[in-house]
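Q: Got a minute? One more chain.
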Amino acid sequence: MAEFRIVMEETDYGSDIFKDQTDKKFDTQLLRNNMKKKLMTELTYMISASSYPLNEFLTRMLHRYQLENVVYVIEALKKNRGTIEEIMRQADPLGDFPELKNVQPVDGEDYASLYQQVLIDLPIGNYFRKFLDELIASAYSDDHVVLDTKFVADVMRDKEPQQIKHHLQKIWLQDFYKFCKTELGEGS
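A: Always. Here it is, folded:
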């Protein structure tokens, strides 16, 4: 541990990654989170200092982690795993964005309004909108389905968080590919 600290303190990551670490108790998860926080600080600076298309590319790249965090936070709130502050400490630092702290628990099992908060307030809401549109389109073929907020709540309750996350990542990846192909071109 001591050798690792000496080597790393000579880099740009320096003492930032060793916050809250002691030589006697080395926590790799804490080290990983501190490294990701430092990386996020660097990416945020690059986004603010660059122009289109680089800033848009970096922003869209981070959407993957933001989607994971949103699903994680919503599922943690649904299962009453703690306050939003406690849940945020467990979230991936690369997926951190200010609006995520605005996601609030809902009364009862009103999952539709919880996801509605995501659709309205968050920068990644378009992925959730596409996800729900796909769910509704697949159910629309069944003539006996009533498409209302209760339907959305029932569908969301039946979906496992991993299913939701993977479906959202698929939508994000398709969108990211389309952006790269159209905005960055074939030769980029």
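A: DSSP finds eight helices and no strands in the chain.
Q: Perfect, thanks.
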